[in-house]
Amino acid sequence: MKTRLLAIFIFAIFIGCWQVVCALKWVSPILLPSPFDVGKYLISSMLDGVLLSALGVTLSRLAIGYVMGLIFGISIGLLLYHSFLARSTLGVVALGLQTLPSVCWAPLALLWFGQSENAMYFVVIMGSMWAITLSTKEAITSVPPIYVQAARVMGSRGFHAWRTVVFPAALPQLANGARMGWAFAWRSLMAAEIYVTIISRFGVGQLLHFGRELHAMDQAVGVMVVIVLVGFLSEKFIFTRCKLKHT
Amino acid sequence: MSSPCLTLENVSKTYMSNRDGRLVTALADVTFSVNAGEYLCLLGRSGCGKSTLLSVISGLTELDAGTIRNNGELVCGPNRHRMLMFQQDALFPWLDVLGNVMYGLQFVERMSRDEMQKKAEAYLDLVGLSNVHHFHINQLSGGMRQRVALARALAPDPNILLMDEPFSALDAMTREQLYADMQRIWKETQKTVIMVTHNAREAACLGTRIILMSAGRVIDDQPISLPHPRTMNDTGIGQTASLISQRLQQKENVESIQ
Ligand SMILES: Nc1ncnc2c1ncn2[C@@H]1O[C@H](COP(=O)(O)OP(=O)(O)OP(=O)(O)O)[C@@H](O)[C@H]1O
Ligand SMILES: [Mg+2]
């Protein structure tokens, strides 16, 4: 409790200093808006619904893109686990693509899908699925074979052994991969929303982009705060909650 | 004690070594039979094929040649009449103690969840673990884990219990306690036990019969007629153990000369 109070105090001092720096005009307000202006922007855009609707659009894109990334990632991960041929071909490609920063998918996405929703999904899927693919394959490969043998001795076969042994044994690592995929999907979506200029359905990435275009730095910084919050809260609440007991 | 519970005839198994592709003979022409209620100890040096023998008896590993019959029935694939306790720890860490013991019961026909739980609890009582039902596996000591593994293997009521060096990773005190419990459980359940060990004293303390192995072959087969229950301090145990060790050495020397 004490450390928490201290942390809040330090944050308050930090924001206070920031406010003072801006109030004294030590830096130009075009470069750095004051926390007061940022707060004002956040409240007004919250009230007129712009921010909330953008957040809704972004989160729905994230959810759809991420789920697709999971589906593709896990399927290809299973394929890699099963087939030596797939491992030595697709596996190498996956390893390479996983290192590719997701922004690099944007040009290709624009070329193939134009300025569209699909272009954004493409970037999110490509940005997240390879990490999920590799961690799925890794998770299943590292299940000690002794567990499956023990299950077989007791009478488990085929899919039953998968459901009751391989899957739960791999779950902690699978969850880890899913969490990594989520982080990648979130970063990819922000890149996609900044690159893909769409006319309807603005997401927070687009708000950030317009903030910069219009030199509305209070908007740009305000939206950044929102983006950080979304990332932070999802890490903290969705994924730490589902950490498993036996790990 | 008349008709054998398990018979092995000319059982052979060869592995291809992963490293250099050479063939490794794990079992060569193994023939013996085991009567119901026996406590058979398999003894031999590391790599002589003891684990492989248990694995083929369980049905987990396929034979290259020969036949294995369990109560007259040809063994092909694992089934619940032969339960194997592995050399390495094979309890499921994602289940609690009760869940582990219940796992094998889901393959026993006509058993409701309640019955499964009752049965699992009864076997946990038998192995002396009545108050850790909901512990996670990594909260248990080594000795407790082996007890859980034993309860898990006994719960489906197999007619043969196969144990691969079940006590070798434990400290001396825990081990002696388990020897006593193991003899009691063997008497109570009247199971046929085949246990691998590399410790002659352990074999002398528990077994009714000892088979010595070397390089995949059975080189000696002797009954032990000391009365149960035995403890490690009994005078007969030390003598029997040193006899066994001597015999193992002699036979191995003879083998290596031939
Ligand atoms: N899956 C396998 N693939 C290749 N070789 C194997 C395999 N399993 C066992 N072997 C070989 O077969 C031989 C017998 O192995 P086994 O595990 O049965 O020995 P063991 O008597 O149980 O030894 P230990 O006392 O060390 O457990 C060894 O030479 C081993 O290298
Ligand atoms: Mg072994």
What's the structural blueprint in terms of helices and strands?
The complex is a heterodimer of chains A (247) and B (258).
Chain A: H1 2-23, H2 35-47, H3 50-82, H4 84-88, H5 90-98, H6 106-113, H7 117-141, H8 145-154, H9 158-195, H10 204-213, H11 217-239
Helix pairs in contact in A: 2-11, 3-7, 3-9, 3-10, 5-7, 6-7, 7-9, 8-9, 9-10, 10-11
Chain B: E1 4-16, E2 23-35, E3 39-44, H1 50-58, E4 65-70, E5 73-74, E6 82-85, H2 97-103, H3 113-126, H4 142-154, E7 160-164, H5 172-189, E8 192-197, H6 200-206, E9 209-214, E10 217-223, H7 235-257
Helix pairs in contact in B: 2-4, 3-4, 6-7
The complex binds adenosine-5'-triphosphate and magnesium ion (MG).
Q: Most extensive interface: pair and counts?
A: A-B, 18 and 25 residues
Termini separation of chain A: 27 Å
**Which regions of chain B are unreliable across 5 or more consecutive residues at pLDDT < 50?**
none
CATH architecture of the largest domain in chain B: 3-Layer(aba) Sandwich
Amino-to-carboxy terminus distance of chain B: 37 Å
As for the CATH topology of the largest domain in chain A, it is: MetI-like fold
Q: Structural class of chain B, please?
A: alpha/beta
CATH-defined fold name of the largest domain in chain B? Rossmann fold
The coarse overall form of chain A would be elongated
Give the mean pLDDT of chain A: 89
Instruction: Report the sheet-strand fraction of chain A.
Output: under 5%
Alpha-carbon Rg of chain A, integer: 22 Å
Helix fraction of chain A by DSSP (H/I, runs of at least 4): over 70%
Order of helices and strands of chain B: EEEHEEEHHHEHEHEEH
Report Rg of chain B.
Answer: 18 Å
